Amino acid sequence: MIFKVLADAFLVNLSFIFAYYLRFKVFVFITPSSAPIFGKYLGILIFITIIWLAVFKLVGLYENKKFTALVDEIAMLFVGVVASTLVLLGLLFLNREFWFSRLLVANAGIIAFLAIGLGRILSFWLVRFLKLKGVKVKNVLILGAGDIGLTLADKMLHDKYLGYSLKGFLDDDPQKVGTSINGVRVLGKLIDCKDIIKKLKIDEIIISFSSISDQRILDIITECEKLRVEFKLVPGILELIASRIDTDEIAGIPLLTVSEIRLKGLSAILKRTADLILSGIGLVILLPLFVVVSILIKLTSPGPVFCVQKRIGIEEQPFMMIKFRSMVENADKLLPDLQPLSEAKGHLFKIKNDPRLTPIGSFIRHYSIDELPQLINVFLGHMSLVGPRPPLTHEVEKYNAWEKKRLRVRPGITGSWQVSGRSLLPFDDMVRLDIYYIENWSLWLDLKILFRTIPVVILGKGAY
Q1: pLDDT per residue over 412-439, tens digit each?
Q2: What is the per-residue pLDDT for 38?
Q3: Which residues of the chain have pLDDT under 50?
Q4: Whole-angstrom Cα distance, residue 411 to residue 386?
Q5: Domain edges within the chain
Q6: Residues with Cβ < 8 Å from 301, sequence gap 6 or more?
Q7: I need a surface site. Which of 68, 161, 372, 463 has the fewest CB within 10 A?
Q8: For residue 244, what are the CA distances in angstroms to 239, 257, 322, 387, 402?
Q9: Which strand (E) or helix (H) includes residue 188?
Q10: Would you say 327 and 356 are in contact if contact means Cβ atoms under 8 Å apart?
Q11: Which long-range contacts (C-beta less than 8 Å, at least 24 apart) are formed by 265-270?
Q12: Beta strand 245-250 with 253-258: parallel, antiparallel or unpaired?
């Protein structure tokens, strides 16, 4: 963190020096009768740097935490630069003798954001490169070799830039101990945790299943603290709804009240407004692509261009979802015969190399082009740009009460599960991600998911 603070201090000073040059050497047509003495200007830069670094600290740029994505750090940097610039402009307003040019301050803010932002980006990619080369890599042990544990393991093994060296699983299932699952060995039971941490020099423990008792979790946490091992826990149902819990009491007995899960009020208005504007713009921009895809569908297979399918939306209300047709006509009639071949766990039907796909269908589905007409559903209010994927009627019939919580908001074209693995994720993980999204919704979260959807779609990762 010290290096980051020093780098920011250097770039802030450099930005103000460059802004001085622009203001009094380049923009000469708006230069005052006399420019401030450069030496005096440099002296005040010490004061300015302290203000900026203090504001950066207040907004959280120097917290000892990891940003979940580079876009989070850049967004936080933007907030810090804007706040610092406003503080400095406020000082200019309060102290008339403080002779700084307002145009200079504005220019310095823009330059500082670009310079520090570029520094953050270069640092981010340098760290990724070093992790790919095996530098700053953590030895990790996953407790629980179930679906969630396997999903985490798959991510760690395939995305080396995350900086994890997975040493194995621990699981109390005697049938799993000593075996290898997807190439990762189950090293023993939970009781062996302490010995394996020491033997393999583990840096981080991740508990990936909810069946473990609270007492056992506390014991493991205690051991991790003694051994200076970082500890992480995949949240269960109660942890996911923690943001909606209020405390109350009757006769001195503490009670927990869980509030309703629903996007409402100003949040609902903001989300719907963003959907309306962005879907309208998207439909206009993508119209030429719609024409080209429609022609290709008609040329390569008989049948309609669009597939209009009944789906279940908000509050279990049915609606007709529009997609480009990627399968042969009457594909639904072939579903019962293919159901046993489904490769997705839970209530979903997913199969690679689906025999019902048309020649162009496999391509437009791989890159999610078939989903683009759903912008019409978004514009009409049936769907949202971001949200849980809309299920089929027969899928909802199998839902339990907990799984139906994902139907409390408008379904989306993209969502948390699409950018976290798409068809590769088990159904239970998809529900968990959907509930987390609903609990923690913000306009910024929607924008992040939309940005993260772009590379996932371009690479076609996990789509089938």
Answers
A1: 999 887 776 555 566 777 777 787 788 7
A2: 65
A3: 464
A4: 7
A5: 2-132, 138-234, 265-459
A6: 325, 328, 329, 358, 359, 360, 361
A7: 68
A8: 10, 8, 34, 19, 15
A9: strand 184-188
A10: yes
A11: 267/441, 270/443
A12: antiparallel
Nearest residue to 165 via CA among 138, 190, 145: 138
Task: Give yes or no for a contact between 53 and 6, defined as CB atoms under 8 angstroms apart.
Answer: no
Report the CATH fold assignment for 138-234: Rossmann fold (3.40.50)
Q: Which residues pair with 245 in a beta bridge?
A: 258
The pTM assigned to this predicted structure is 0.65
Contact 357, 365 (CB under 8 A): yes
Burial string for 412-428 (b: 16+ CB within 10 Å, else e) reads bbbbbbbbbbbbbbbbe
Name, in order, each residue with C-beta under 8 angstroms of 241's C-beta and a sequence gap of 6 or more: 258, 261, 435, 439
**What φ, ψ does residue 86 adopt, rounded to 5°?**
-65, -40
Interatomic CA distance for residues 129 and 112, integer angstroms:
25
Token duo for residue 2:
């010290």
Q: What is the DSSP letter of 327?
A: B
Write the CB contacts of 98 (distance below 8 Å, at least 6 apart in sequence): 91, 92
For 184, 297, 314, 325, 438, the CA distances from 360, given in Å and listed in that order, are 37, 7, 32, 9, 35
Q: 11 CB contacts (<8 Å, ≥6 apart)?
A: 112, 115, 116, 119
